[in-house]
């Protein structure tokens, strides 16, 4: 009898110990590949070391298109992860099915939430982009901003300074374009992607937008939108601008183009492409009527389908990701922006920014940044505008034809919501 009692007691203690030390598993879907995967894994390892009862299972998707498809499929099947990186338009779609747990739920919790100073520490523009109807649904993580990448050696050779306005950019692109004896261009002054992003960069600098302020109508036939696309087409036709749909760090690195526009997330790829062949840097997008460079990147979402313990564990991870020292580490290793202001006060960032002047350029643009509409139709709208821009910049349609057709498609899409 005593043996039986001892066995029962040992088993009970074993089960109790197992329940005490059981880990809460948080599945985290993301597309942080290439140079971003290792820094993320390091952050996760540090979090797990500080929270031994939580395991972050990072599940990598090949790209954002795959991640989007998987999330929407999982939303239908009821097999969403605990948390994921999301674009704001994905959030808007998932909100329609009441699947996103608002971060406001955790932020306002007196035991585990954020203080007013912690919330204010997040850059205002990022927080605004994560807010719907006055409620914070997601929080920012990997954010980049559009910049002008320039070959400093090429500019110095032609006695040029950094272009600060769009007219200066156009003038410098002409001067920097070089031809050989037979008249073939061997260096274009400027490189532009034939995408919606390129169009948006210049459109916002000119004070325009794709949609009206309440996102109910397209503004593509407005004078500012038409003039913006005409300017891009004219740049390509002039022979001073190299245009393609793909990324431009390769052509920049091999000297085919002297300047191009990309996000700060392209800095590590550009450094690899250049490989020390020449001096280069990043500078603010040249100003038009205003300074409103778009920012890109995804946010952190927690889903209601996860258990309460998983949601709380995920929230703890989100809070950890927003720590100043973590944000400084992430920004230094990836080229993304620190999403909290006090990351700039850390010793690591101070040392890094003193040694890397490009870092100061990135953060200097955050107060001017603009963001995409957080509506479910935005992905489709981007595709429509992208097709129009590509058609015009490849001379398949006139800017007027391309934008008029896109305007009709978008308004039809918005009217159907």
Summed up:
This protein has 417 residues and is α+β, with helices and mostly antiparallel strands. It has helices spanning 2-21, 37-50, 64-77, 88-96, 103-107, 116-120, 124-129, 152-157, 166-176, 196-205, 223-237, 249-253, 267-274, 308-321, 324-334, 347-355, 357-364, 378-393, 399-415; strands at 24-30, 54-60, 83-86, 100-101, 131-132, 135-136, 139-151, 178-179, 185-187, 190-193, 241-244, 259-263, 280-284, 295-303.
Ordered list of secondary-structure elements with their pairings:
Elements: H1 2-21, E1 24-30, H2 37-50, E2 54-60, H3 64-77, E3 83-86, H4 88-96, E4 100-101, H5 103-107, H6 116-120, H7 124-129, E5 131-132, E6 135-136, E7 139-151, H8 152-157, H9 166-176, E8 178-179, E9 185-187, E10 190-193, H10 196-205, H11 223-237, E11 241-244, H12 249-253, E12 259-263, H13 267-274, E13 280-284, E14 295-303, H14 308-321, H15 324-334, H16 347-355, H17 357-364, H18 378-393, H19 399-415
Parallel strand pairs: 1-2, 1-3, 10-11
Antiparallel strand pairs: 3-14, 4-14, 5-6, 7-12, 7-13, 7-14, 8-9
Helix pairs in contact: 16-17, 18-19
